[in-house]
TrEMBL record:
Metabolic or biological pathway, per its Swiss-Prot or TrEMBL entry: Purine metabolism; IMP biosynthesis via de novo pathway; 5-amino-1-(5-phospho-D-ribosyl)imidazole from N(2)-formyl-N(1)-(5-phospho-D-ribosyl)glycinamide: step 2/2
GO CC annotations, alphabetized: cytosol
Organism: Oryza meridionalis
Annotated InterPro entries: PurM-like_C_dom, PurM-like_C_sf, PurM-like_N, PurM-like_N_sf, PurM_cligase
Name the record gives this protein: phosphoribosylformylglycinamidine cyclo-ligase
């Protein structure tokens, strides 16, 4: 498999009951051309490994970089050289990839073959598949700085499954992509453990993924993440906002903090504040936390709670409050000519947002279209259903009546 000028070596993420033996190299193609007398370029052989009886897929993809060389045989060699170049010398450690394969086998035993299989019966016209993809943005920068890597995978899953549940869809499965310049097995294991946790919270299968080791592409110790979720909803259960009318009630589900949006601004504020990530911030419960912990608090996965509320009936529209905040996200579910009146005193804004606003001297309007301000999911429900929904949400699952649908477009704060 080729990506731009790189040659990718794919190692299957299998899930053996015990560590699998190292795969034997097998030539997938070989050729030569004449450049100068007695000098020819030999194409590298590719090693491949397979597994049987698996229902999912995970690959470790490693890309050869022209930079660097090491001793020993293998890889790309030129006749007449005293020492041949190696993949490890080019910056790719296949042994590290194999070790990560083994560890992931413990975390997600169902992962196996080249493609992930998910049992599903789809009657044409009766159900829809709903798909979503996202990343966690520059929150990754704070993960690198704080060393908190075991929850960033929860953020990754949350950003996709929270999107697709707004259609009323139950997430079925999730795939992830993890890319780094040099594979740190311990670090990657922490990240993927968070992804496993996120899938458990959303009651969906981690069907597979890809780990790409690409020398010189990222800074040392850094990585990138993206995720992909697929869900399903019956045709007559789709939530699309078309039936929303003036007077409907807007209910908000609390966030855990900043979630995974607005971090480019939040990091600027942190720089300006002069605080370190270890300095203390208050919490709404009267306790304290560190700046780093407050910013790295994982995104709430709303799937189970939202599906429970939907089952009670009366839900007409749902908005996931991400980039764009209240101002841009809530109107996305409204028919033309309708808007929202939001009662800003209806819930307690977490202290982390007040700190961001005060230090950054940020206007209310900018805060409300950048951050979730303590409400991560918004549901538009009928008047008749509102009281029953609110009565059933107490304690950690508390929901707030934060507004109502009004005539006229846009979001109005009172």
């Amino acid at each position: 498999m080729a990506a731009a000028a790189d040659r990718l070596l794919h190692l299957l993420r299998a899930a053996p009951a015990s560590p699998a033996p190292a795969p034997a190299p097998s030539s997938l193609g070989r050729g030569a051309f004449s450049h100068k007398p007695r000098r020819s370029l030999r194409l590298p052989s590719l090693a491949a490994a397979g597994a049987t009886g698996a229902s999912g897929m995970r690959r470790v993809a490693v890309a050869c970089s022209p930079a660097g060389a090491g001793g020993g045989g293998g890889g790309v060699g030129v006749e007449g050289d005293e020492e041949g170049m190696t993949y490890k010398g080019a910056g790719v450690d296949i042994d590290a990839g194999t070790e990560l394969v083994r560890r992931i086998g413990r975390l997600a035993p169902a992962i196996g073959g080249f493609g992930g299989l998910f049992p599903f019966v789809l009657t044409p016209g009766d159900q829809f598949l709903v798909a979503g993809t996202d990343g966690v943005g520059t929150k990754l920068k704070l993960a690198f700085e704080t060393g908190i890597h075991d929850t960033i995978g929860i953020d990754l899953v949350a950003m996709s499954v929270n999107d697709i549940v707004t259609s009323g869809a139950k997430p079925l499965f999730f795939l992830d992509y993890y890319a780094t310049s040099k594979l740190d097995v311990d670090l990657a294991e922490k990240v993927i453990k968070g992804i496993v946790d996120g899938c458990q919270q959303s009651d969906c299968a981690l069907l597979g993924g890809e780990t790409a080791e690409m020398p010189d592409f990222y800074k040392e110790g850094e990585y990138d993440l993206s995720g992909f979720a697929v869900g399903a909803v019956k045709k007559d259960k789709v939530i699309d906002g078309k039936n929303i009318v003036e007077g409907d009630i807007i209910i908000g589900l609390p966030s855990s903090g900043v979630h995974s949006n607005g971090f480019s601004l939040a990091r600027r504020v942190l720089e300006k504040s002069g605080l370190s990530l270890n300095d203390q911030l208050p919490r709404n419960d009267g306790m304290t936390t560190t700046v780093g912990e407050a910013l790295m608090e994982p995104t709430v996965i709303y799937v189970k709670k939202v599906l429970e509320i939907i089952s009670k009936g009366g839900v007409k529209g749902i908005a996931h409050i991400t980039g764009g905040g209240f101002t841009d996200n809530i109107p996305r579910v409204f028919p033309s000519g309708l808007g929202a009146k939001i009662f800003t005193a209806a819930w307690e804004v977490p202290p982390v947002f007040r700190w961001i606003q005060e230090v950054g001297k940020i206007e209310d309007a900018e805060m409300r279209r950048t951050f979730n301000m303590g409400i991560g999911m918004v549901l538009v429900v009928s008047k008749e259903a509102a009281d029953g929904i609110l009565e059933g949400t107490h304690g950690p699952n508390h929901a707030y009546r934060i507004g109502e649908v009004i005539s006229g477009e846009g979001v109005h704060y009172v």
